[in-house]
Specification:
The protein has six helices and five strands, in the order αβαβαβαβαβα. By secondary structure, it is of the alpha/beta class. Pfam families: Rhodanese.
């Protein structure tokens, strides 16, 4: 009866953890999650994941509406600091969002592609 227990404890079985490792993020993306890069424009131009959507952190509140609500959202930045706050902001707005721990460096180490 895990469904009953989850409801009783008010746990959402579809909820994502607050942060994920890069290998977990790659798995989520393979399953249809959306990758959002919240770094600034100059950081984005220096290299980014080709499938990422660029939404600078300062524009997240207004541009989040461009993100699908029916898919998980993985948020990345350079180190994982800004993405944690951005993922929390998206969760508060009703998105299923998680932060990529370790940022772009962890992404690269896990074999995630980067383009300019």
């Amino acid at each position: 009866m895990p469904g009953f227990l989850d409801r009783l404890l008010r746990r959402d079985p579809d909820a994502l953890p607050r942060s994920v490792r890069a290998d977990q993020a790659l798995d989520l993306l393979a399953q249809g999650a959306v990758l959002v890069d919240v770094r600034e424009k100059d950081e984005w131009r220096s290299g980014h994941a080709p499938q990422a959507r660029h939404v600078p952190l300062g524009r997240l509140a207004t541009d989040a509406r461009r993100l699908p609500r029916d898919a998980p959202v993985v948020v990345m930045c350079a180190s994982g600091m800004r993405s944690r706050g951005a993922a929390a902001q998206l969760r508060a707005a009703g998105y299923r969002a998680t932060s990529l721990s370790g940022g772009l460096a962890a992404w690269r180490t896990a074999g995630g592609p980067v383009t300019r």
